[in-house]
TrEMBL record:
Reaction it catalyzes: 3',3'-c-di-GMP + H2O = 5'-phosphoguanylyl(3'->5')guanosine + H(+)
SMART domains: EAL, GGDEF, PAS
PANTHER family associated with the record: BIOFILM ARCHITECTURE MAINTENANCE PROTEIN MBAA (PTHR44757:SF2), DIGUANYLATE CYCLASE DGCP (PTHR44757)
One Gene Ontology biological process: cellular response to nitric oxide
Chain ranges of the PAS domain: 27-97
EAL domain: residues covered: 455-709
Pfam families: EAL, GGDEF, PAS_4
PROSITE patterns for this protein: EAL, GGDEF, PAC, PAS
Name the record gives this protein: Diguanylate cyclase
């Protein structure tokens, strides 16, 4: 090797060493940087756990001060168990050549401190004693947090297990994640199951699903539900609420509390507070409350109502002679009969003693109120008059008791009146009933009393009239523009044995209200058909048609078409000469059914006339749909047609309307020649009124026809 070469080689060696040294320095700096970056202290321990060196960014991270740690073994620094645990970790790391983790506790001045360490064997030269790099992290805060968490969990568990309610919680997927023993006892364990897995009715399932969904959406739902447990229906109050973590909903939980007993108590309290324990009828307090409501409701709905005060006659005598047990039994039985006499929605109550009250509501109109109150009071009186069989008569023997009651009645409706004033009125009326000899009904208002008595008498009379054939038909001629008779209107008359001839205005209204119009109307139709058939058989009267008034109730009755069909067949009356007079009010209600019925009847050949035309509100469009033949101008327009320009215009308009709809028009109530001339001049071809003839009995009517014929 030349000198030159040797020099060169030496230079190369120096360069390599320098590079190596630079690399070592670089590595050391890198290591130092890593150590700096480490948040945890690093120790170097030997096999005895002696601290050979350490690095810590801050001395706070160490368990003790550096002077105590350096050169000391773990046995000298830590408690026995902790030291053994560290030494074991050193052995394990040495034996496995891998890093080993341990946690240990040091009792410090300010309480226990927790550390987590990771022990890694340090690479060593063959004969060197093993050394270890130990990374130690202070985890006291985490340990404390875990402890708090554990305590909270135990607290939660204790609460959940001991609350007197069922508890459950579900995650976002709807799976049950928590439950308590009460839940398990009622439903079996729900853990892991979804609401779809529950064995409940479809309705209960839908209900649960809906409340759960509302809770998932953030709402706290409160509701009640009933469930059968061991064959017993029990009521639960339930709360379903969202579980929020940091404002975000992570699940829902629910409490079901069995409130069956509470409900039962509430019901008992309610019963005691508002119901009479003997008869189980509402007591005075509840009755007054309902009456107040009825007063407000009837004023708002423009409906009538009635208050009936019922006092048992001679009740005290029963108590005195047969004892209180018999009295109590009678009161219970009276209550049961009262319940049967009233409609749903009405109230029967016991005021106390032998006094009862009935509140009737939602009655249409004062007249109807009068009729209904009278009818129900009558029914109550009749019911109470039926003998009572009392099992607990004096001496334990059964007795038959004949009871009677005095009933005071007062109506209420739109007038401003208090419940107590109403009671007072009913009371006054009841005393009048007592004064009238007991077992009587009495209205508070004398006018009402008179009207009710009269209507009740009229009602009974009407029944008798039907039975005893006291009705008759009168005929009023209808003429054409040449005054030639073309037919008649049949008008009902009642030949009362005591009161003489009664006109329909006095009884048709009551017959309508009570439904008697149906059999009366049937009689009218049968008589009219017989008359038509009789006229049809004679050439001089064969052309006559007969108009018959049909009331709404009669027209709507089931089987009306069949009834007329039969009548026509039976009597042989020419259907085409029968004209039914309907009013607009009949036609307006339930228009579809009315049109259908009219079509059926028209198919039989029957014609229709629209009575009182001009007084109602029928729309033209509606009129066009009806199979009518004739409009009848109401007599109120005809009456003043010469003096009232307005009425004259109305009559002209009706005549024009009839023309454009293709209907004939008849004027009703024509009394003077002027009226007749006016109407005829405007194209009215048919007329009815006193000018041509009043309604009259058959014989007179046929005499009138004969004059024309002659
Ligand atoms: N001022 C005056 N009045 C005249 C004149 N011409 C006829 N009248 C009266 O006007 C009424 C016409 O009958 P309505 O409008 O069908 O009105 C009838 C009808 O709605 C009803 N009615 C009569 N009979 C029956 C029936 O059999 N069934 C039904 N449901 N209602 C009937 O009773 C209402 C009254 O009948 P009526 O008392 O017989 O009274 C009749 C008749 O006597 C006149 O020139 N001047």
């Amino acid at each position: 090797m030349t000198d030159e070469n040797r020099r060169l080689r030496a230079t190369c060696d120096i360069d390599a060493r320098k590079r190596h040294e630079q690399q070592v320095v670089g590595l050391r700096d890198e290591l130092a940087t890593i150590l700096h970056a480490l948040p945890d202290p690093v120790f170097e321990l030997d096999m005895d756990g002696r601290c050979l060196s350490y690095y810590a960014r801050s001395e706070d991270l160490l368990a003790s001060s550096p002077s105590i740690l350096l050169g000391k073994t773990v046995r000298e620094v830590l408690a026995l168990d902790e030291a053994e645990s560290v030494l074991q970790a050193l052995h394990e790391a040495r034996d496995t050549g891998r890093s080993v983790g341990r946690q240990f506790k040091i009792e410090g001045e300010h309480g226990p401190q927790w550390f987590e360490m990771s022990v890694a064997p340090k690479p060593s030269i063959a004969d060197e004693t093993p050394r270890f790099i130990v990374l130690s992290r202070k985890i006291t805060a985490r340990k404390q947090a875990e402890q708090v968490l554990r305590e909270r969990e135990s607290l939660l568990r204790a609460v959940v297990d001991n609350i007197p309610a069922e508890f459950w919680a579900r995650d976002l997927e709807g799976r049950c994640i928590m439950e308590n023993a009460a839940t398990v006892a009622h439903w079996g364990s729900l853990l892991g199951s979804r609401i779809d897995d529950a064995r409940v009715s479809p309705e209960a399932h839908a209900d649960w699903l809906a409340s759960n969904q509302r809770a998932y959406a953030g709402e706290t739902v409160r509701k009640e539900f009933a469930s059968d447990i061991d064959g017993e229906r029990r009521v639960f109050q339930c709360i379903v609420a969202p579980i929020r973590v940091g404002g975000e909903i992570v699940g829902i939980c629910g409490f079901n509390q069995d409130i069956t007993e509470r409900k039962r108590h509430e019901e008992q309290i309610h019963q005691l507070a508002f119901f009479d324990p003997l008869t189980r009828l509402p007591n005075r307090r509840l009755m007054l409350d309902r009456l107040e409501h009825a007063l407000i409701g009837s004023a708002r709905r423009h409906q009538e109502g009635a208050l009936l005060l019922i006092d048992l006659d001679h009740f005290k005598d029963l108590n005195d002679t047969h004892g209180h047990e018999a009295g109590d039994e009678l009161l219970m039985k009276v209550a049961a009969r009262l319940r049967l006499c009233i409609r749903q929605g009405d109230t029967a109550a016991r005021l106390g003693g032998d006094e009862f009250v009935v509140v009737l509501e939602d009655i249409d109109g004062v007249v109807e109120g009068l009729v209904q109150a009278n009818a129900i009071a009558g029914k109550i009186r009749d019911e109470l008059n039926r003998p009572f069989h009392l099992m607990r008569g004096g001496g334990g023997e059964a007795i038959t008791y004949h009871c009677s009651a005095s009933i005071g009645i007062t109506l209420f409706g739109s007038q401003d009146i208090s419940a107590s004033e109403l009671l007072r009125r009913a009371d006054t009326a009841m005393y009048q009933a007592k004064a009238a000899g007991r077992n009587a009904l009495c209205f508070f208002d004398p006018a009402m009393q008179a009207a009710a008595t009269e209507r009740a008498a009229l009602h009974a009379d009407l029944h008798r009239a039907l039975r005893d054939s006291q009705f008759e038909l009168h005929y009023q001629v209808q003429v054409d523009e040449t005054r030639r008779p073309i037919g008649a209107e049949a008008l009902l008359r009642w030949r009362h044995p005591a009161r003489g001839l009664i006109f329909p205005g006095s009884f048709i209204g009551l017959a309508e209200e009570t439904g008697l119009i149906v059999p009366i109307g049937t009689w009218v139709l049968r008589t009219a058909c017989l008359q038509l058939a009789a006229w049809a058989a004679r050439p001089e009267t064969a052309h006559l048609r007969l108009a018959v008034n049909v009331s709404a109730r009669q027209f709507r009755q089931a089987g009306f078409t069949d009834q007329l069909r039969e009548l026509i067949v039976l009597t042989g009356a020419p259907a085409s000469r029968l004209e039914l007079e309907l009013t607009e009010s009949t036609l307006i209600e339930d228009a579809e059914a009315v049109v259908e019925r009219m079509e059926e009847l028209r198919a039989l050949g029957i014609r229709f006339s629209l009575d009182d035309f001009g007084t109602g509100y029928s729309s033209l469009a509606y009129l066009k749909r009806l199979p009518l033949s004739q409009l009848k101008v109401d007599q109120s327009f005809v009456r003043d047609v010469m003096s009232d320009a307005n009425d004259a215009t109305i009559v002209e308009t009706i005549l024009g309307l009839g023309g454009s709809l293709g209907l004939s028009v008849i004027a009703e109530g024509v009394e003077s020649e002027d009226q007749f001339a006016f109407l005829a001049a405007r194209g009215c071809r048919e007329h009815q009124g006193y000018l041509f003839g009043r309604p009259m009995g058959l014989r007179d009517f046929e005499a009138l026809l004969a004059v024309h014929h002659a």
